Amino acid sequence: MTRAQAWLAPAAALLVGGSGLVYAWMRYLCEPRDEFALVNHPWQPLLQHLHVLAAPLLVFAVAALWAEHVWRRVRSGYPRQRPTGLVLFVLFFPMVFSGGWVQVAEGELARTAAVWTHALGGTLWCAAYAVHLVLHLLRGKTGPSGESAAASSRSA
């Protein structure tokens, strides 16, 4: 995995996850200053647009990680170290597809289901990604066999 790929995924996750969490706070927890306001916070439309426009960057980053980080390890028989990677994989698809569903849902029930699926899936994915990164940092720069992470990534 290149250094750019290693930085792209956390940056995209922070941008998309952060904008989504702040947007949700504005949309569902803030009270509008004016009773006739269309939004609860003046920055709410900006955060929604940032979230929607940055989401493809996260999809691209995860696809790049899949090819370089995940699939290469699966093919080489690399032992599983962190189950958080599997959790990330499982949660990613409902999060992404429900994000599109939120944009096109027409009925009230369908929209509510899409919003809840996306909010829950996105929040759980962000939490799992944070745990995944923290475990990586706690594990340090050495792999399971004691070799450096750079050496193990070159040999994989």
Number of helices: 5
The counted number of beta strands is 0
Rounded to the nearest angstrom, the radius of gyration is 18 Å
Structural class by secondary-structure content: mainly alpha
Helical amount: over 70%
Key descriptive features of the protein:
mainly alpha, disordered C terminus, single chain, elongated, 156 residues, 76% helix, 5 helices
What does this structure look like?
α1 (3-28) runs antiparallel to α2, α1 crosses α4 (108-139) and α3 (84-104) packs antiparallel against α4. Residues 144-156 have low confidence and may be disordered. This protein is 76% helix and 0% strand. The chain has helices spanning 3-28, 44-76, 84-104, 108-139, 149-155.
Which SSEs are present, and which pair or pack?
Layout: H1 3-28, H2 44-76, H3 84-104, H4 108-139, H5 149-155
Brief account:
This protein is an all-alpha fold and 156 residues long.
